[in-house]
Amino acid sequence: MRFKCVVFDLDGTLVDTLEDIALAMNTALCERGFPALPGEDYAGIVGNGIRHLAYLALPGENRDEKLARELAERAARLYAEKPVVHSKIYPGILELIFGLRNLRIKTAVLTNKPDPVARMVIDRLFPAGTFEAVQGETPGVPRKPDPASTWELLMRLDVTPRETVFAGDSEVDLETALAAECSPLLVSWGFRSREALEKASAPRIIDRPGELLDLVRETRI
């Protein structure tokens, strides 16, 4: 089989956004009188959207859906104002994307980050036109790991799931790839440890972006 497309998760896969996410959420927490979380704690709780993040960021005895929604709305506004203060592209990612382009393989981004913010992050960090498509969370479309957003994206790109590698850094991305019937690939440089990815039974884990290019060249994953 020849792969024709790679769909990337954004946070923890293409870009290290953790410090900016933590800053926005901690500011929102402190405004409500709750303690800030250590920045490294966010690595284990991001990936399922900002409302789920807000719920987990609250102290256990204060976890309430209404409060989490209010906290998420405030953190989202703060984050949208300054989404790229500390965020940076992981080493080797640009070389990977340009290598895929030279192989005429389409590239896209699918993230649970709100769509306008996702586009701001991509536009500020990557050269214009780097990806064929960028899609964040939008009203009416279920977030990952539901496969609907993946299938919608692939239809726009005119590729099938069997022709697609889904690359991410978390259990959510693995579940998404499997649900959408894409080839799953997890990266070890993101927000989850290699141990956590192995525990999730990821069929393929890579430690360097260049490994993905090699695998696609060989057309087997």
Summarize the structure.
With 221 residues, the chain is of the alpha/beta class. The chain has helices spanning 18-31, 50-57, 65-81, 93-102, 115-125, 148-157, 171-180, 194-199, 209-218, and strands spanning 5-8, 15-16, 88-89, 106-114, 133-137, 164-168, 183-187, 205-206.
Q: Total number of β-strand segments? A: 8
Number of domains: 2
What's the main sheet like?
6 strands, parallel
**CATH fold type of the largest domain:** Rossmann fold
What structural class results from the helix and strand content?
alpha/beta
- Elements, N to C (H/E): EEHHHEHEHEHEHEHEH
- Beta fraction of the residues? 15-25%
CATH H-level name of the largest domain... which superfamily? HAD superfamily/HAD-like
Task: Report the C-alpha radius of gyration, rounded.
Answer: 17 Å
Name the assembly state: single chain
Distance between the termini: 10 Å
Low-confidence stretches: none
CATH-derived architecture of the largest domain: 3-Layer(aba) Sandwich
What's the pLDDT, averaged over the residues? 94
**Level-1 CATH class name of the largest domain:** Alpha Beta
Determine the fraction of residues in helical runs and give it as a percent range: 40-55%
